[in-house]
Amino acid sequence: MKENPFRQERDEMKELLKQYQNFKTGKKFNFIEEESFERIIDYFDENDNIPLALEAVNFGVEQYPYSSSLFIKKADILIASQRYLEALSILEKAEVLDSNDINLYILKTDAYLALDNQEKAAMLLEEAIIVFDGVEKTELLFELADVYDDYEDFNKVFNCLKLILEQDPTNEEALYKICFWTDYTGKNEESVLLHQKIIDEYPYTQLAWFNLGAAFQGLKLYEKSIDAYQYAIAIDEKFDYAYRNLGDAYLRLRKYREAIEVLQKVLELTMPEAVIYEAIGYCFEKLKNPAQARFHYRKAVHLNSTDSHLYYKIAGTYMKEGYWESAVKNLSQAMSINKSKPDYHLALAQCLVQLERIKEAVVHFTHFIKARPRNVKGWKELIKSLYDFEYYEEALEQIYNAQKNTDDKPLFVFYKAAVLFALGKSKEALLHLENGIHRAPGLTKQFIDLNPSLLQNSLVVETISLNKDLKKKYKK
């Protein structure tokens, strides 16, 4: 029966450690080869016993004073011990013995970075990249990319990854990383050219198709991004990130049915995520299907019950269907998580108005207005509610506040006219109506919408008609 290789290796290591112990104590021992010292050092290092690893490497260097690999191992252990200057000194000795070992440059880089000398680390690697080629050059470029990342020269990170792909077009690590850095640096045009070139040579590289789609998406060329993602999926039908981005591209184009289809595919391929259910809910909402939208928002809530915005979205679906009590319940839940969102207060106020709880509604309108005093919608909703419930004096006061905070928007001139009519101040009301029509004739409809019965007032009809005729005459 063939012996278990792991057991054989363990027995060999046990014997080697016994020899090493005899060597240390001066007992009779077999000659320990250079490679055996390296195995002993690695054994202690892998078992996180740095002092014993350092002791072993020192014995090894004494026995083999011209071994660059042992000096490099010693430097590696010194770096692990945070003895960076000693490590650099040892690496200088190793370089004299063998300047072509890539580990020299990697360990020097680690030491310089630990000493917060990113510039020197970058210079070292830039010089080394010229010397090496093939796999070693690729490894050094990855190291250099990390150095540039460390001192936030992100365009150079992108350039390093681009160089890697130019010499190794199917390198998966580089393909994964460059997608992120393309988005971060905005180098979408460069990414398109790079990945089109890769695809020309290696047309079945799904990551290249995916990155091409992401770059087109970054350029807002959504139709082209969809084509690229579909190629990626054709190569790998379980490519969940391609489905995810494809769904986003369809959303951007307002192709909600197609977006739902591909986002549901994401749910089949991966663990369910709140963000996917939320996106599907949004699509159903845009398709005017609030019940299905709500169903998916609830699925999202089950996965992320602390996201107040999801409860707000659920409330929105109830509001579209006129289920005001249910909407209030979900808005209250949202506000129990986050009270500071002005939009929650506005939505809750709107629901309370529908439930004829006007005093509570005013409180929440006020919260919204305090947060966004220049927002016309908040003032408009508050004044309209006060008007509808015949709180005319309060409405007049809020019109004054609205004009002061919104640079005297003409809408509130019309609202003031309507309130004055309600208070029986017809002459003053007509003056404000005429002023409003002169300033913004297009808003006359909002005046009428506030109270259509105003059209039964002949003076109102006459004022509107007269000013329309004057406007036409002026245009001619």
Could you characterize the architecture of this molecule?
- With 476 residues, the chain is an all-alpha fold.
- The protein has helices spanning 5-25, 34-46, 50-63, 68-80, 84-97, 102-114, 118-131, 134-150, 154-167, 172-185, 188-201, 206-218, 222-235, 240-252, 256-269, 274-286, 290-303, 308-321, 324-337, 342-354, 358-371, 376-388, 392-405, 411-422, 426-439, 444-450, 458-475.
- α7 (118-131) packs antiparallel against α8 and α8 packs antiparallel against α9.
- The longest helix is centred in the N-terminal third of the chain and has 21 residues, at 5-25.
Rounded mean pLDDT score? 90
Structural class: mainly alpha
Whole-Å distance between the termini?
A: 107 Å
User: Are there runs of 5+ residues with pLDDT below 50, and where?
Assistant: none
Order of helices and strands: HHHHHHHHHHHHHHHHHHHHHHHHHHH
Keywords:
476 residues; 27 helices; elongated; 0% strand; mainly alpha
